Amino acid sequence: MNPRVQRYLVAIEYIGTRFSGSQQQAKDRTVVGVLQEAFRKFVGQPVKIFCSSRTDAGVHALSNVCHIDVERISKRKPGEVLPPHEPGVVQRAVNHFLQRNDGDVMVTDVRSVPSNYHARYKARERTYFYRLLSGSDPLSILEKDRAWHVPEELDLLSMQEACRVLVGSHDFTSFRAAGCQAKSPVRCLDEFNVIEVPSTPYFPSIMERAESKLNNGDDPLTYPSQTKTETASVTTNFGETFGIGRRHRCYVVTACARGFLYHQVRLLVGALKCVGTGELTVSDIERILEAKTVSAAKPMAPASGLYLARVKYELP
């Protein structure tokens, strides 16, 4: 512990499409590598960054957290140690350099913490989201690498029933990939569920705008239920619907736990999707869980639909 060094807890968001994962690698572009370079330009010396959670190539983060030690040395008088930067200064300065490097990582929060506060080991809970878009039409290019496109319709009630089988503490050997280094396959899923949400990034249709005016004062997040894939405009006038893309039904899986096994969430979502399409039953999920072998599981979901949503802490 160096009393001249300030440790910062740093929250970041990123689009994982062009990264070979979050962890530092010798040759490939990674989240930590890009962040370390931005900090190096800011403080004028190399730094080491420790992430709370590893994410694979193509996985996104709404909020990942890391810690970093910074000794503020004067650039005018080399060797002179100055008082630590305020967290807001760190956030603005590092974002300045990140935006000059493709702009697919951004610092969203910074806090000064004690020198023994570790981003990984102090984490109390991690939450992941997984997005599935169901519908026969091709996805909008605005959704490219942001969700798993499932052409078939999904049975939401069956998927929710399967979630209830998996929530809680279990031996998840069947849902961890080869190469997992965890000492124990037992994990406790504090939350595991799937819901249907409004499809994005589409803007409100004519009917939705009209309903909003009629129901002024109601919850703005209320949206009409969709039983089938619909056009973004409900009018039958060809001139009004031409060029308007078709919506897909959007489902979000939420998984919360203190920690996860390697590829656990993607393997769980892969099985859940198969329940939704009818390839598996809820009983099959129970059988796979009890088999305690990854060969029993269905292929895992692609990385593009997975988002690290939040890492929860008890901050000092």
What does this structure look like?
This protein has about 325 residues and is an alpha+beta fold. The chain has 7 helices and 11 strands. The protein has helices at about 30-45, 85-100, 155-165, 205-215, 240, 265-275, 280-290; strands at about 5-15, 50, 60-70, 105-115, 125-135, 150, 170, 185-190, 190-195, 250-255, 305-310. Strands 1, 2, 3, 4, 5, 6, 9, 10 and 11 form a 9-stranded mixed β-sheet that branches. A two-stranded antiparallel sheet has the order 7-8. Strand 2 (about 50) and strand 3 form a beta hairpin. The two termini are about 20 Å apart. About 35% of the residues are buried.
- In percent, how helical is the residue content? 10-25%
End-to-end distance, in Å? 18 Å
Total number of beta strands:
11
| Poorly predicted tracts of residues | 218-236
Mean pLDDT: 88
Overall SS class = alpha+beta
Taken in chain order, the helices and strands follow as EHEEHEEEHEEEHHEHHE
| Major β-sheet profile | 9 strands, mixed
Assign an overall shape: globular
Count of separate DSSP helical elements? 7
